[in-house]
Structure formats: structure tokens, C-alpha cells
Amino acid sequence: MSNPIIKLAGDMAIEPRAKTPVQVPGGAVEPVLVGRGIVKELGQGAGKIVAVKGVDIELRPGELTLLMGPSGSGKTTLLSILGCILSPTKGTVTVAGTPTLGLSPERLATLRREHIGYIFQSYNLFPTLNALENVRIALDVAGIKGAQAISQAKQALRDVGLGHKFESFPANLSGGEKQRVAVARAIASAPSIVLADEPTAALDSENGHGVMKLLAEIARSQNRSILVVTHDPRTLGYADRVIRIEDGLIVGEDNPKSPQEAALEASGGVSGDTQCATTASTDQRLGADTSPQPTAKRRRKVVDERQVKPLQTEELNEMIRKRKSNA
Q: How far, CA to CA in Å, does 151 sit from each of 17, 236, 239, 274, 310?
């Protein structure tokens, strides 16, 4: 029972979909998780470290939020506190309207079971179980067995694009597919909140982008709140919010790049009329001619003006013409 998957799988809920968000006056959506003044001290005496130093944070349904910071910034400790695995030294955490302060271990387990799913960097799949069994075991431990467990596990795998991999064992899956199985396991019980700890760290660029796109789709289509702890810049284009943490303190919140820009960088080029607006805005910053072009394949890459010298309009247009003729 030392494997964290066994412990957390035993907490999982039964509902087939995420809970309906609570509306507050004015039409806003009630945060599903709220942290106020969170402090976490580790160790004692001269060796004591304050890993988290008075953090305030809110997570809302339907959003993918990134918590970004360097190693040792306190982001994983904060994730564990928000997931009710660690208790804060000071401050409060409220999950789905329930304050966690003073709750017994049994009640905290119930709260995790009803509202929180987890995704780990190292997948933590059982090598002797196929994909369906790896998802199903989380439901089995929670008391969901037989046909119901099979049905929910299959649906979760379909949701992550692995409906054709039910019988595949981890050794026969790519890194991206393994992480998708881990995502399916996390969402199988329809938690309101999904917490992911460095889910792209072990993946190559293509699979990293694939997993982030999947998480963004799940957040919005299934109305879940997903928090991703990461220092991976590849994740930026898929988030609704980016919260930055350094030395245990929240130092800022950013609006990330648009998904179109992330897709451009991932593919190394553009295609389709829907991406013309992104290219046009970049051309405007560079002083290029932004009049309509006869084809969508105008640029092979978004250029950041902070990294290159501004190009003259005539030179840039000549580059565009050459690339169009070579396309």
C-alpha cells in the first residue's frame, strides 16, 4: 500500500461526470478550490524551511491553470496542500465549499474521493496490467466493480483518444500513450479538480504538446478545474491562466500565449485560415504588409521581435513571396 496510486485510487469518486459549478450573483462561477494565506514549514529548529509563504490561490471550473516556477520554488508542496495530501502550517484550503481545517484523515479522504484526481510525472502504471485494467483498478479500489467499472474505464480511455488500446500493456505504449492512460485514470471518477505534477517532463515535444492539448480540452469540455505544476515552457499556450511562484511566494499571474501561437510553434508553421490573425498581428509588430494574401501559408514560423532585428517591409514581403512559391 506504499504506492501513492493505491492510496489515491482508494479515494476516487463514483459520479460519471464533473459536478455542475455553483453560480454566484452576477453570473460568475464559484471557485471550486480556494487557498488563503497558505504557509508550509518543513523541518524543525535550525533546519526549518518555509516552503510556502502565505499563498492565496483560486481554481475555477472549466479552466486550465499553470503553476510555474523553478525547482525548489514550493510549487509541488503547494500542489500537495491543495490536494489535501499535506496540511498547511497556517492558512485555509476550501474544496467545493468545504473548509479542510480540522478535518479528520477520513474526512479528507472523502473530500479527495469526491472532488480530486491526480496525474503524476512518472505515469505510475502497473506493468502487468493493460490500459483498461490500469484505469479500472482505481475504480475497483473505490468499490466500483464489475460491469460499471469496465464501462467507466472504457469511457475514460475513449475520452483521451485510447479507445483502441484497451488491451495494450505499458511496455507496448509510447510515453505519450502512457501519460494518456494516467490522465484517463485521473478523470475516470469525474473529479471536480485534477492536479497534475509535471505531466510533460518525461515526454518529447510532440507528446508534451499532445498531453497539454488533451488536458485543455478536458478542462473546457468536461467543466473541470485542472492545475498543472510545471516549469516546461511548452505548456504555456494551452492555459487559461499562468500563476508564477518563486521562493514560496506568488510573484505574478500572466495571460499565456494564444493556443494558435502554441500550435504554430509546435508545428513549425501555419495552415488554415483560422491562424491568419495570429500571423497578421506578428506582421504588424514587425512592420510588414498586413493586406490579405491569396494563401493561408504565409509564414513558416512566428517571429518574436525581441529575439531578432525588425525587418524592413520590403525584405519581409520578399521572404513571404519566396516561401509561398516553395510551398
A: 13, 34, 30, 37, 56
What is the predicted pLDDT for the residue at 285? 36
CA–CA distance from 105 to each of 35, 101, 131 (Å)? 19, 11, 31
Under 8 Å between Cβ of 222 and 193: no
Distance CA 148, CA 130 (A): 18
Are 231 and 255 a contacting pair, CB within 8 Å? no
For residues 187 and 9, is the Cβ–Cβ distance under 8 A?
no
State the chain's mean pLDDT as an integer: 77
Catalogue the E-assigned strands of 173-319. Answer: 193-197, 225-230, 241-246, 249-254
Lookup result for grid cell 500537495: 80
The one-letter amino acid code at 303 reads: V
Separation of alpha carbons 32 and 11, rounded Å: 18
- Whether the CB-CB separation of 149 and 139 falls below 8 Å is answered with yes
Q: Summarize pLDDT for 196-239 with one digit per residue, the tens.
A: 999 998 889 899 999 999 999 999 999 999 999 998 888 888 99
Single pTM value for the model:
0.70
- For 136-153, the pLDDT digits (tens) are 988 876 667 889 999 999
Q: What is the 3-state secondary structure (H, E, C) of 299-314?
A: CCCCCCCCCCCCCCHH
Q: What are phi and psi of 254, to 5 degrees?
A: -115, 160
Would you list the domain boundaries of the chain?
Answer: 4-256, 262-326
Nearest to 225, CA basis, from 80, 55, 32: 32
The pairing of strands 49-59 and 33-42 is antiparallel
DSSP classification of residue 201: T
Judge whether 120 and 182 are in contact, CB under 8 Å: yes
Does CATH place domain 4-256 in 3.40.50.300? yes
Question: Which one-letter DSSP state was computed for residue 23?
Answer: B
DSSP-derived 3-state class of residue 253: strand
Residues 6 or more apart whose CB falls under 8 angstroms from that of 201 comprise 121, 230, 232
How far is 96 from 327, CA to CA, in rounded Å? Answer: 52
pLDDT digits (tens, 9 = 90+) for 256-272: 655 455 445 444 544 33
